[in-house]
Design brief:
single chain; 2 domains; three-stranded antiparallel beta sheet
Length: 703
C-alpha cells in the first residue's frame, strides 16, 4: 500500500481550469419527448406507454395473485410511521421550518393519499403529483399534492441538449374536458421505480410478472374448459334397432339437459339403455402449473414467502429468510419515496417560506415490518445488558402506547432517573506497565459480565482507557486532515465531467499515515507490555531457565503490520470522504441555475461541513483494536514457553454479538485453537474488543 501511495503522489499536476462540459450520454432515446426503452423486446411494452398501461391494468384488475403481490409491497410502506426529522443541531428557524412542513404534510393534507399515489410507481413504473400552492398571509402553503395518473403521461420534455427533465406533458380528462396539459418540473414530484439512465417512465414491477401471468391466464382457460367438458362425463344412450325419429330427438334433448338434482330420475322404454362416459387414461392437471406461475409472479417482487402453505414445502425459518429480503426491498422503496419528496415538494416549500440558506428537514420512514414483539425484546436486551442509552421516559412510553394501540395516559408523568448500575468489576493495578491513558486505575469499567478467575489478571480499566484514547488519537488526526483533503476532493469533483466523477481519487497524505502509524505503535507497545504484567499478577514462580533466550528470539522475528494498518485506515477514510463529497457534488452540479464553479465549490463544502463526522470514530476503531491484539500476540510469542492455555474473552464488549458470545470463555492450548481477536466474524466488525487471556503454566498447576 505504501508503494501505491508513492505512485499516486507522482501523478501529474491538476489542470488550471476545469472542463465543465458534459461529454457523455445516458443512452436513453427521447425523441420529441417520446421515450423508448432500447432493451425492451416485447412490442406490447415498447410501442408506447398507453399500450403497456392497458396490459398492466388488465393484470392488476383481473388476477388475484398480481393484485395480492402489489398490495403486499404497498401496505407495509403505507402502514409505517413517517416522521419529519430536524437537521442536526438545528437552529431555531430550522426547527420552525420542520414544524411547518410537519403541519403541512401530516395535518393539512392526507399523507396516506400521497403515499398511495406515489406507490403507483410499482404498478406502472412511475407516478407523480403536482404541487398546488396558495398564499396564507406571509406563508406559501400546500393546497394539495394533486395526483397525476400515469396513463395520462404523454411526453417527457427535456432541456435542450441535456437529459434533464423540464416538463411533463399530459393527455387526459379534467372534469368533462379532454385536454393536453404541461406541468413544469419545478412543480412536479416524479416517483420512478427501477429507473435506468434518463428513462423517466421507469420499469413497472408488473413487467417481470407479465410472462408468468400470460402463461397462467392460458392455463386457467384450459382448466376451465376441461372441467366444463369433462368434469361429469358425457351422457349417452342406445335405442332399439328401429327407434322412431321423434324418440331419438326426445332422447337427445333429454341427454343435453341432464343435470344432477336430488329428484333426478329416468324412465327408459323397452330396448333403451343409457350411461355416462368419462375420460379414460391420465389427464394433465393444470393446477400444479398454475401454482408454479403464481410463484413466479411473487418472485418478481421477492414475495415468494406468500406461497408458503400453498405448496408442498416450506417452513417458518425459510419464510423469515425470504421475508428479510422482501422487507429490505420495501425499505429501499420507502427511502426512495422520502428522497423524492425531500428534494422536490419539501425543499420548494422551505425555499419559498424560509429562504435557500437554511437546511430543510427530512421526511423519514421508520423501519418497515418491525413488530411490537421485536421492539419489546430489543428493549429488554438493552436493559439487561446494562446499556443506559435508552431510558423509560415519557416520550418512549407515548411511542410504545401508540405502537401497541393502547390509550393515551393523559397527563405526562415525570419519571425518576434510575440510579447508575453498580461497578461490575474492580481493576487490579497495572504495576510496572504504564498505559497511554489518564483513567484512574481504581475506576470500575462497565463490562459484559463479571470476570472469571483467569480474567482477573487483566488491567481492565487501563485496557479500555488505552483503546478509547488510541481511537480518539487516530480519529483526531483524521479530523485535522479533513479540511485540506476535502478541499482537494471537491475541486477535483467540480472539475471532472459528470460521468467520470465516480473515478476521481487523491493520493494519501504521507504525514497523516506516519502520524497514525505512531499512534498505533503506542497501542501496540501497550498491548505487548500487558503480558509480563499479567504474569506477575498470576503469582507465578520463576520462569524457565531458557525463557530469556526464547524471548530474544521471538523479538527478533517481531511482525510489523502497523504501516499496513495506517495505510488502510487512511485509504478507507479518503474513500469514504470522496463518496460523501461526490453525492453532494452531484446534487449541486445537476441543479438548474447559473452557478459559477467557485460558488458550487462553496455550496458543496458548506453542505459537507454540516454533515456529522461520527463515522470517523468507526474507521479509527478498527486499526487500534487490531494493533492492540497484535501487541498482545507479540507478548505471547515472547512468553509462550510459560503459557499453558489461552482463553477467548468477550468481557470488554458490553453489546456482544452472537458470534463473539458463542466464543466467549472458549479455551485451547494456543491462540490458533480458539477464534482470532478481533473476531473476523464479529457483527460489530471494527468495534470488536475481544481479547486472548493467557494462563501461565504455574497458575494451571496451582489455580
Amino acid at each position: 500500500m505504501k508503494l501505491l501511495a508513492k505512485l499516486f503522489r507522482g501523478a501529474g499536476p491538476r489542470p488550471a481550469t476545469p472542463d465543465l462540459t458534459e461529454a457523455g450520454a445516458t443512452g436513453t432515446p427521447i425523441l420529441s419527448g417520446f421515450l423508448r426503452d432500447l432493451g425492451e423486446y416485447n412490442t406490447s411494452f415498447s410501442s408506447g406507454p398507453f399500450s403497456s398501461y392497458a396490459i398492466i391494468e388488465e393484470m392488476r384488475r383481473s388476477d388475484a395473485q398480481v393484485a395480492a403481490t402489489l398490495l403486499a409491497c404497498k401496505l407495509p410502506i403505507r402502514s409505517a410511521e413517517w416522521t419529519i426529522a430536524d437537521p442536526k443541531d438545528a437552529t431555531p428557524i430550522e426547527q420552525e421550518a420542520a414544524e411547518f412542513i410537519r403541519s403541512c404534510l401530516f395535518e393539512e393534507l392526507d399523507f396516506q393519499a400521497i403515499l398511495k399515489n406515489a406507490l403507483l410507481m410499482l404498478d406502472f413504473g412511475c407516478a407523480a403529483h403536482e404541487d398546488i400552492w396558495y398564499v396564507d398571509g406571509n406563508r406559501v402553503r400546500l393546497h394539495a399534492l394533486a395526483p397525476r395518473l400515469p396513463h395520462t403521461f404523454y411526453r417527457w420534455i427535456t432541456q435542450p441538449g441535456t437529459d434533464e427533465l423540464e416538463a411533463l406533458e399530459q393527455q387526459g380528462y379534467r372534469a368533462e374536458q379532454y385536454l393536453t396539459a404541461t406541468i413544469d418540473a419545478d412543480k412536479l414530484a416524479l416517483f420512478t421505480f427501477d429507473r435506468e439512465g434518463a428513462n423517466f417512465a421507469g420499469r413497472s414491477l408488473c413487467r417481470a410478472m407479465y410472462k408468468p401471468w400470460r402463461i397462467k391466464s392460458g392455463l386457467e382457460k384450459i382448466d376451465a374448459i376441461s372441467l366444463e367438458r369433462n368434469g361429469m362425463g358425457i351422457p349417452w344412450a342406445i335405442g332399439p334397432e328401429n327407434a322412431k325419429k321423434e324418440d331419438r330427438e326426445t332422447a337427445i334433448a333429454w341427454l343435453e339437459k341432464i343435470a344432477t338434482h336430488e329428484k333426478s330420475a329416468i324412465y327408459l322404454p323397452f330396448g333403451w339403455t343409457w350411461g355416462i362416459k368419462g375420460v379414460e387414461g391420465q389427464i394433465r392437471d393444470a393446477t400444479s402449473s398454475i401454482a408454479f406461475q403464481n410463484m413466479q409472479i411473487t418472485i418478481a417482487a421477492l414475495a415468494q414467502f406468500m406461497m408458503l402453505g400453498q405448496t408442498e414445502s416450506g417452513n417458518r425459518a425459510l419464510g423469515d429468510t425470504m421475508s428479510d429480503f422482501f422487507y429490505m426491498g420495501l425499505q429501499a422503496t420507502a427511502k426512495e419515496i422520502a428522497r423524492t419528496l425531500n428534494l422536490t415538494t419539501i425543499r420548494r416549500l422551505v425555499k419559498f417560506n424560509f429562504g435557500e440558506e437554511i437546511r430543510p428537514p427530512q421526511l423519514t420512514p421508520q423501519m418497515i415490518a418491525v413488530g411490537f414483539d421485536a421492539i419489546v425484546a430489543a428493549l429488554k436486551d438493552l436493559a439487561s445488558s446494562g446499556v443506559n442509552a435508552i431510558q423509560p421516559d415519557d416520550e418512549l412510553e407515548t411511542w410504545l402506547r401508540k405502537k401497541m394501540g393502547a390509550p393515551d395516559p393523559g397527563n405526562p408523568r415525570t419519571r425518576p432517573q434510575p440510579p447508575p448500575p453498580p461497578p461490575v468489576a474492580q481493576v487490579v493495578p497495572v504495576g510496572q506497565a504504564v498505559p497511554p491513558a489518564t483513567l484512574s486505575a481504581s475506576a470500575a469499567p462497565a463490562l459484559r459480565r463479571a470476570p472469571n478467575a483467569r480474567e482477573k489478571s487483566l488491567a481492565l480499566a487501563d485496557i479500555i482507557s488505552a483503546l478509547d484514547k488510541g481511537r480518539d488519537d487516530v480519529a483526531a488526526a483524521l479530523r485535522r486532515a479533513r479540511s485540506p483533503l476535502q478541499a482537494e476532493i471537491v475541486h477535483k469533483l467540480v472539475s471532472a465531467p459528470l460521468p467520470t466523477m465516480h473515478r476521481i481519487s487523491i493520493a494519501p497524505d504521507a504525514r497523516l499515515v506516519s502520524e497514525i502509524e505512531q499512534s498505533l505503535s503506542t497501542i501496540f507497545d501497550f498491548g505487548a507490555a500487558q503480558i509480563p504484567a499479567e504474569r506477575d499478577r498470576q503469582r507465578a514462580g520463576a520462569p524457565p531457565s531458557d525463557a530469556a533466550q526464547t524471548r530474544l528470539a521471538a523479538a527478533a522475528t517481531k511482525r510489523d503490520p502497523l504501516g499496513i494498518y495506517a495505510d488502510a485506515v487512511v485509504g478507507e477514510y479518503i474513500n469514504n470522504l470522496t463518496a460523501r463529497a461526490a453525492n453532494v457534488a452531484l446534487d449541486w452540479r445537476r441543479r438548474p441555475g447559473a452557478l459559477s464553479p467557485g460558488e458550487i465549490i462553496r455550496k458543496i463544502e458548506d453542505d459537507l461541513d454540516h454533515q456529522s463526522d461520527k463515522w470517523i470514530d468507526g474507521i479509527a476503531s478498527k486499526p487500534v483494536n487490531e494493533s492492540f491484539a497484535d501487541g498482545r500476540n507479540d507478548g505471547y510469542e515472547q512468553h509462550k514457553d510459560e503459557i499453558a492455555e489461552v482463553q477467548y474473552s468477550a468481557l470488554l464488549d458490553i453489546n456482544t454479538c452472537e458470534n463473539c458470545s458463542h466464543a466467549d470463555e472458549a479455551t485451547g492450548p494456543t491462540p490458533d485453537d480458539i477464534p482470532d481477536v478481533p473476531n473476523p466474524d464479529c457483527d460489530g466488525a471494527d468495534k470488536c474488543r475481544c481479547v486472548h487471556v493467557y494462563i501461565f503454566s504455574d497458575e494451571v498447576r496451582n489455580p
